[in-house]
């Protein structure tokens, strides 16, 4: 199989343009070749890793000179072993000027290329909203109970706080927004519930919640309950200002992702239906309602392509809508609301023409 130009990643943070043979894999990993410019990027990242973690990581170094730069792969781990010949190797370019670096690294292909950065920014911004919201909920509840340490959030229906726990084993159940024989008033609980609901507007997938410190309440056996542990007392206050900034950053990152995804979504749709010029979808549906728009600008419910290609479109939409875009987010990103019989909340996207 011939080589292709693509992007690769090994640390889940940075991507690099590369060339590789997709069929040449080991343990699921690919073996990429890089231009000298890409090698310099990799070298900079490995030097940063050395500064952060010490000489436990491999290092790539570029020594400029004539007739061509020298690229070294330094394996610091071998300096303490009886393998001095493996400690440093010179990586030479092949006939096409490519450097095949890190054959033992866990390289993975990043099919979406630069979209990787937008996805990562949106994901990190969402996590910050969830983390700061948890901190803010603790601040609100501690105004009346200073020893409050955590709460249970009920995700079924309209999300709300279901129980609050204290440092000394106390706990206060909440029913329909009211504390039963507890110290909280309705206004305080309402403020805390509002923070929870605004946080979940940015995403409520189980993986995102857990990565942000919202833990499934496994000890209770209720999948719809998550335990939110408050930050230790004494940390800087989150307050409404920093939390609003986190929400704004998450909204901007989400809109950037929506806009950046359009060309990739268009490619997926046209691959599935070559005559498509756009699509109609209901982003609020659990299984997104989907219609392709053909060049006659009429909804085309027939899928001339394979189910696999149509599923790829659905997967792309699901990854976008996992960030729970608002109507304003969709409009800003080029989606237009449409009215269809028995379908509330549908949006159309017409692909830009070159």
Quick rundown:
With 354 residues, this protein is of the alpha+beta class. The protein has helices at residues 36-53, 115-142, 186-200, 206-211, 240-272, 307-321, 327-332; strands at 4-9, 16-20, 25-26, 29-30, 33-34, 58-63, 70-75, 88-91, 99-100, 108-109, 148-154, 160-166, 171-175, 178-179, 214-216, 225-229, 276-282, 289-294, 299-300, 336-340, 343-350.
Keywords:
354 residues; alpha+beta; 21 strands; 34% helix; flat
Task: Write the topology of this structure.
Layout: E1 4-9, E2 16-20, E3 25-26, E4 29-30, E5 33-34, H1 36-53, E6 58-63, E7 70-75, E8 88-91, E9 99-100, E10 108-109, H2 115-142, E11 148-154, E12 160-166, E13 171-175, E14 178-179, H3 186-200, H4 206-211, E15 214-216, E16 225-229, H5 240-272, E17 276-282, E18 289-294, E19 299-300, H6 307-321, H7 327-332, E20 336-340, E21 343-350
Antiparallel strand pairs: 1-2, 1-10, 3-4, 5-9, 6-7, 7-8, 11-12, 11-16, 12-13, 13-14, 15-16, 17-18, 17-21, 18-19, 20-21
Structure description:
It is built from seven helices and 21 strands. Strands 14-13-12-11-16-15 form a six-stranded antiparallel beta sheet. It has a five-stranded antiparallel beta sheet with strand order 19-18-17-21-20. Strands 2-1-10 form a three-stranded antiparallel beta sheet. With 354 residues, the protein is α+β, with helices and mostly antiparallel strands.
The helix content is 25-40%
The structure class reads alpha+beta
Lateral arrangement of strands in the main beta sheet:
14-13-12-11-16-15
Order of helices and strands: EEEEEHEEEEEHEEEEHHEEHEEEHHEE
Biggest sheet architecture: 6 strands, antiparallel
Mean pLDDT: 84
Low-confidence stretches: none
**How many strands in all?**
21
Shape: flat
Which radius of gyration do the C-alpha atoms yield? 26 Å
Terminal-residue CA separation: 31 Å
Helical run tally? 7
Approximately how much beta-strand content do the residues carry? 25-35%
């Amino acid at each position: 199989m011939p080589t292709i130009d693509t992007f690769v990643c090994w640390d889940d943070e940075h991507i690099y343009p590369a060339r590789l043979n997709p069929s040449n894999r080991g343990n699921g990993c690919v073996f990429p070749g890089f231009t000298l410019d890409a090698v310099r990027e990799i070298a900079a990242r490995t030097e940063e890793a050395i500064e952060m973690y010490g000489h436990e990581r491999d290092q790539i170094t570029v020594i400029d000179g004539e007739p061509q730069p020298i690229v070294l792969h330094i394996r610091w781990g071998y300096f303490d072993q009886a393998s001095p010949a493996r400690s440093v190797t010179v990586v030479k370019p092949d006939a096409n000027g490519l450097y095949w670096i890190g054959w033992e690294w866990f390289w993975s292909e990043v099919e979406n290329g630069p979209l990787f950065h937008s996805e990562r920014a949106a994901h990190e911004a969402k996590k910050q909203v969830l983390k700061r919201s948890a901190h803010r909920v603790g601040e609100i509840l501690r105004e009346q109970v200073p020893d409050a340490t955590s709460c249970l959030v009920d995700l079924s229906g309209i999300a709300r706080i279901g129980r609050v726990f204290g440092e000394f084993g106390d706990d206060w159940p909440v029913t329909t927004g009211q504390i039963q024989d507890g110290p909280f008033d309705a206004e305080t609980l309402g403020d805390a519930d509002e923070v929870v609901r605004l946080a979940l507007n940015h995403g409520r997938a189980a993986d995102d919640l857990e990565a942000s410190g919202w833990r499934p309440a496994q000890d209770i056996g209720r999948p719809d309950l998550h335990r939110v542990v408050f930050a230790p007392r004494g940390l800087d206050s989150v307050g409404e200002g920093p939390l609003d900034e986190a929400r704004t950053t998450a909204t901007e990152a989400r809109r950037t992702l929506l806009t950046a995804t359009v060309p990739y979504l268009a490619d997926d749709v046209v691959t599935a239906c070559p005559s498509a010029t756009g699509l109609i979808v209901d982003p609020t549906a659990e299984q997104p309602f989907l219609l392709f728009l053909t060049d006659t600008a009429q909804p085309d419910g027939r899928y001339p392509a394979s189910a696999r290609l149509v599923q790829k479109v659905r997967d792309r939409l699901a990854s976008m809508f996992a960030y729970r875009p608002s109507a304003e987010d969709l409009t800003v990103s080029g989606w237009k609301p449409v009215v269809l019989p028995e379908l509330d909340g549908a949006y159309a996207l017409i692909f830009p023409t070159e």
